[in-house]
Amino acid sequence: MKSPAARGFSDSPPPYPYGWFAVAFSSELSNGKMLTARFIDRDIVVLRTASGAISAIEAYCPHLGAHLGHGGSVVGEEIRCPFHGFQFATSGRCTFSPYGTPPPAARLGVLEAREICGVVMVWHGPSGETPWEIEAPDAGPEWRPLRTKKLTLHSHPQEVTENSVDFGHLSELHGFRNVRVVRDLAADGPRLRTSYAFTRTMPLIGGIDTEIDIRVDGLGFSLVEMTIPGGWAIRQLVLTTPVGERGVVAHIATSLRTRAKGLVGRAVWRPVETLIERAILYAVVLELRRDQPIWDNKKYLSRPALAAGDGPIGRYRRWARQFYSEEMS
Ligand code: FES
Ligand SMILES: [Fe+2]
């Protein structure tokens, strides 16, 4: 990628930054299933083969253009087109044509895909460049299955992710008090890390002091971890996927680390933990719905009138420039 100084940056960032972006939750894809997802203004097909491997491919068959997400199927480890029955390996190679030897040009477009923390992520990057990897958090069996929700936003991944460093809005928009930085923003290549604390007022319970760790890997992967009263660790994912010029699908997920030990313990704790999980997802979506009208209607200002209490928005924006190239602007 080019150095930031080499880029002519227009007022708003180009619509499709490079990076890893969520296109499905793992729970949506049982073995042998495929689904269509919208990604950077085109359709792709995401699938899981009979052995459980994840793949993401261009939606259109290279033979005569049928949409594989409409009638195509997973056959063992391969994909079969519904139109003339060509079959493809997940590498993209055509393995079968009913007319004999497959034409050499019959090759599916394949996207790099990873399954991280119960989410299927695909790569968008400059051709020929090896993707960097998301630093996956531990995903042991103590982490309960994700609870998920998708929200469609009229926004941009950079704008939504900017929330993680916009400390000022936490009190005004979300009503959090005593917002303070615990660990200053640290950038390391495509990764950002920071921690902060605040007091949140909950009905009946009163003020709760919360400390949160934020991990951002590119503009499509944002993970918040915290411990709630009672000692449960929870995780919150807000993964923004660019689907159109100013269209984002936010893949939202929460997970709780069970405190139960053994089968009996799990059975005893399950009802309590299920209630907590529901409340957490509800609370996360509630806060995002407070942000949504701002995101949906705001304008990106390349030269905002930043104030002292804003948080490291300038540093965040300089860091974000690495996800664009000069050719995009
Ligand atoms: S269009 Fe897919 S096999 Fe012909
Ligand atoms: Fe927010």
List the helices and strands and how they pair.
Blueprint: E1 19-25, E2 34-39, E3 42-48, E4 54-58, E5 73-75, E6 78-80, E7 87-89, E8 94-96, E9 110-111, E10 113-116, E11 119-124, E12 147-153, H1 157-161, H2 168-172, E13 177-188, E14 191-202, E15 206-217, E16 222-228, E17 232-244, E18 247-256, H3 262-297, H4 313-320
Antiparallel strand pairs: 1-11, 2-3, 3-4, 4-9, 5-6, 6-7, 7-8, 10-11, 12-18, 13-14, 14-15, 15-16, 16-17, 17-18
The chain binds FE2/S2 (inorganic) cluster (FES) and fe (ii) ion.
Can you tell me about this structure?
With 329 residues, this protein is an alpha+beta fold. The chain has two domains: 106 residues, Rieske [2Fe-2S] iron-sulphur domain (Rieske Iron-sulfur Protein, 3-layer Sandwich); 182 residues, Naphthalene 1,2-dioxygenase Alpha Subunit, Chain A, domain 1 (Alpha-Beta Complex), CATH 3.90.380. The protein is 16% helix and 37% strand. Strand 2 and strand 3 form a beta hairpin. The longest helix has 36 residues. The radius of gyration is 22 Å and the shape is globular. The two termini are 13 Å apart. The N terminus is likely disordered. The structure holds FE2/S2 (inorganic) cluster (FES) and fe (ii) ion (FE2). FE2/S2 (inorganic) cluster binds next to loops.
Order of strands, main sheet, comes to 12-18-17-16-15-14-13
Q: What class do helices, strands and sheet pairing give? A: alpha+beta
Name of the top-level CATH class of the largest domain: Alpha Beta
Q: Report the sheet with the most strands, covering strand number, pairing sense and barrel closure.
A: 7 strands, antiparallel
What would the average pLDDT be, to the nearest integer?
92
**Ligand roster:** FE2/S2 (inorganic) cluster, fe (ii) ion
Percent of residues in β-strands: 35-45%
Number of strands: 18
Order of helices and strands: EEEEEEEEEEEEHHEEEEEEHH
Measured as a percent range, the helix fraction is 10-25%
The N- and C-terminal alpha carbons lie at a distance of: 13 Å
The gyration radius over C-alpha positions equals: 22 Å
CATH architectural designation of the largest domain: Alpha-Beta Complex
Provide the CATH superfamily of the largest domain: Naphthalene 1,2-dioxygenase Alpha Subunit, Chain A, domain 1
Q: Domain count, please report it.
A: 2
Please tell me what the overall shape is: globular
Unreliable residue runs: 1-9
Provide a count of the helices.
4
Oligomer: single chain
Determine the CATH topology of the largest domain. Naphthalene 1,2-dioxygenase Alpha Subunit, Chain A, domain 1
